[in-house]
């Protein structure tokens, strides 16, 4: 591609809306352009990267025996009602109506649709194993879209779905995907780890996430320093024996419902974040406990925390809860000796340890409560592990916390969807059995951007060659010199003929601008043709990674880059 004819427009200034480097570089390099919050246009450079990542994904999926299809992006509500997710999915699900007032969703994922497709054709155990995948645009109305393609609302995902006749088959299909995922992320040039993961709202049993290791990642991972154990903290379990929750006596120090968060914050010397009503209690040791409550009596405890000076006041009002799509929360009886109390707990609270939980009145509280043990809920085995804890697997090493970007996720779904949707086949004995399913996702844009997060310097992006928009960039620094231009033109044609993806900066621009753009865009191999060297019969070849220039005889360039 000739730069002069291309639609590549770089920006000089850092972009204020970008909180992380990779987002800034994608915007500055002219890879993407924001259309609305969490919604981006892919410009030529960006689309090239998306294609490169998709091609790798496609190759590995095909190699693993999966077949590509393309499902509809808009899905009828009926399927979501069948699976139960019409009610369960929450606000991330974009619901739309057609002119006939019929409900549809813009697909955030495709378990329902693929199950519907398969149940129409696959009636016998002989038709499995089967794995169908697609690379397609999804929409999730994320609460906080941010970081560019990392957490968009509209984004491109590869999603695959396996169907098997039994659990053993499902395990094999899952393992095949596991291997394919390792190949994919290795080929994308990423430093990553697969970690044990929480199965979240999709449900199911085993699940692993593929994490690109990066400080800017939104996920926290624990890894063992002596064995292979690695787990998302959302999921990690600890082997440290727990003290049972203690009943504690609390005295009201303010009238329930009368304290506002602001009052409490002032009392504790913190900044209020949301507005809600709070109950404030003290125990015998004069420690203060705040419970933030509002409205509904039954759901009286929204977020409990031990407020001892350094507390972060991170609480939610009913409105905020609703925005989080948590209006249901997790409600269950707490094991109070003599009172039946209900507790509401949100997605984030469940990952905390040592909660104080209780009723909307004094003297019915437990300290050191644990999710799963003292709360009855369906994700009972969750608790947070601390750094330095003993590894639950080898029981020798200690755990360390690092951060990661979730680029891929594989799940064993079991019969969750097939049962709900009555999607069955006849087994060897003529019995009707729901399929055993697995689902496997990769964020294409997130993967591309994670690569930048791991590969950049102060000048710009350093693309791994496998997913770079171009492999080689030729920069001619003197567009008035006929001989030099002619040399570059020929070299460009030769390189294309050799099958390289070449960007040829033939623009009539100052050298400084061209060299800066070259560093910013991050093409891995560069051939710089400057006047002085050219007159000596040489050009400069360098790698973006180290920017070390090497003089090469001009007739040997092609051989050199091969
Ligand atoms: P997250 O925990 O980051 O919200 P998720 O667990 O909800 O992701 P999955 O349902 O597992 O996502 O989807 C499969 C893959 O799709 C993820 O591993 C990720 O790479 C990608 N993905 C999910 N949400 C987004 C998003 N908002 N923007 C870009 N990619 C996304
Ligand atoms: Mg999500
Ligand atoms: Mg996740
Ligand atoms: Mg996930």
From TrEMBL:
GO terms for cellular component: cytosol. InterPro entries: aa-tRNA-synt_IIb, aa-tRNA-synth_II, aa-tRNA-synth_II/BPL/LPL, Anticodon-bd, Anticodon-bd_dom_sf, Pro-tRNA-ligase_IIa, Pro-tRNA-synth_IIa_bac-type, Pro-tRNA-Synthase_IIa_type1. Residues 38-464 form the Aminoacyl-transfer RNA synthetases class-II family profile domain. One of its GO terms (biological process) is prolyl-tRNA aminoacylation. It catalyses: tRNA(Pro) + L-proline + ATP = L-prolyl-tRNA(Pro) + AMP + diphosphate. It is found in: Cytoplasm. Its EC number is 6.1.1.15. Pfam families: HGTP_anticodon, tRNA-synt_2b, tRNA_edit. GO terms for molecular function: aminoacyl-tRNA deacylase activity; ATP binding; proline-tRNA ligase activity. Keywords: Aminoacyl-tRNA synthetase, ATP-binding, Cytoplasm, Ligase, Nucleotide-binding, Protein biosynthesis. It comes from the Bacteria. Consists of three domains: the N-terminal catalytic domain, the editing domain and the C-terminal anticodon-binding domain. Belongs to the class-II aminoacyl-tRNA synthetase family. ProS type 1 subfamily. Homodimer. Catalyzes the attachment of proline to tRNA(Pro) in a two-step reaction: proline is first activated by ATP to form Pro-AMP and then transferred to the acceptor end of tRNA(Pro). As ProRS can inadvertently accommodate and process non-cognate amino acids such as alanine and cysteine, to avoid such errors it has two additional distinct editing activities against alanine. One activity is designated as 'pretransfer' editing and involves the tRNA(Pro)-independent hydrolysis of activated Ala-AMP. This is Proline--tRNA ligase. It comes from Hippea maritima (strain ATCC 700847 / DSM 10411 / MH2).
């Amino acid at each position: 591609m000739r730069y002069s004819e291309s639609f590549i427009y770089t920006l000089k200034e850092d972009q204020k809306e970008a909180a992380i480097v990779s987002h800034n570089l994608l915007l500055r390099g002219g890879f993407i352009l924001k259309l609305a919050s969490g919604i981006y246009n892919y410009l030529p450079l960006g689309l090239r990267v998306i294609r490169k990542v998709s091609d790798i994904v496609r190759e590995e999926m095909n190699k693993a025996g999966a077949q590509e299809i393309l499902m509809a992006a808009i899905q009828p509500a009926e399927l979501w009602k069948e699976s139960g997710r019409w009610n369960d999915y929450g606000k991330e699900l974009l619901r739309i109506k057609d002119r006939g007032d019929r409900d549809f969703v813009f697909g955030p994922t495709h378990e329902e649709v693929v199950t519907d497709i398969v149940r129409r054709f696959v009636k016998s155990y002989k038709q499995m194993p089967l794995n169908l995948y697609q690379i397609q645009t999804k929409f999730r109305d994320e609460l906080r879209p941010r970081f560019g393609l990392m957490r968009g609302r509209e984004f491109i995902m590869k999603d695959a779905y396996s169907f098997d006749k039994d659990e053993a088959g499902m395990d094999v299909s899952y393992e095949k995907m596991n291997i394919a995922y390792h190949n994919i992320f290795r080929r994308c040039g990423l430093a990553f780890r697969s970690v044990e993961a929480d199965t979240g709202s999709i449900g199911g049993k085993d699940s692993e996430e593929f994490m690109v290791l990066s400080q800017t990642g939104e996920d926290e991972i624990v890894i063992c320093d002596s064995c292979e154990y690695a787990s998302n903290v959302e999921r990690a379990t600890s082997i440290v024996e727990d003290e049972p929750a203690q009943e504690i006596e609390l005295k009201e120090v303010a009238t329930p419902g009368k304290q506002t968060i602001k009052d409490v914050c002032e009392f504790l010397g913190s900044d209020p974040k949301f507005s809600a009503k709070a109950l404030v209690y003290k125990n015998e040791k004069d420690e203060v406990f705040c419970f933030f409550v509002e409205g509904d009596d039954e759901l009286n405890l929204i977020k409990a925390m031990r407020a001892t000076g350094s507390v972060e006041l991170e609480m939610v009002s009913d409105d905020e809860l609703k925005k989080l799509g948590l209006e249901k929360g997790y409600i269950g009886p707490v094991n109070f000796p003599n009172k039946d109390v209900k507790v509401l707990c949100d997605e984030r609270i469940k990952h905390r340890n040592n909660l104080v939980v209780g009723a909307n009145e004094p003297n019915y509280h437990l300290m050191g409560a644990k999710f799963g043990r003292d709360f009855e809920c369906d994700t009972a085995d969750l608790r947070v592990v601390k750094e330095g804890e003993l590894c639950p697997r080898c029981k020798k090493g200690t755990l360390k916390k690092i951060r990661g970007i979730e680029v891929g996720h594989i799940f064993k779904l079991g019969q969750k969807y097939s049962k709900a949707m009555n999607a069955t086949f006849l087994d060897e004995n003529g019995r009707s059995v729901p399929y055993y399913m697995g689902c496997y996702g990769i964020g294409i844009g997130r993967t591309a951007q994670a690569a930048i997060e791991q590969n950049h310097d102060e000048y710009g992006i350093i693309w791994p060659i496998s997913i770079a928009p171009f492999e080689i960039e030729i920069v001619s620094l003197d567009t008035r010199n006929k001989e030099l231009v002619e040399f570059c033109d020929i070299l460009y044609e030769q390189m294309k003929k050799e099958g390289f993806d070449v960007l040829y900066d033939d623009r009539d621009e100052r050298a400084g601008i061209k060299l800066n753009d070259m560093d910013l865009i991050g093409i891995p191999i560069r051939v710089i043709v400057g006047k002085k060297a050219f007159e000596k019969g040489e050009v400069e070849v360098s790698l973006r990674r180290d920017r070390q220039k090497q003089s090469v005889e001009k007739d040997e360039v092609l051989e050199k880059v091969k």
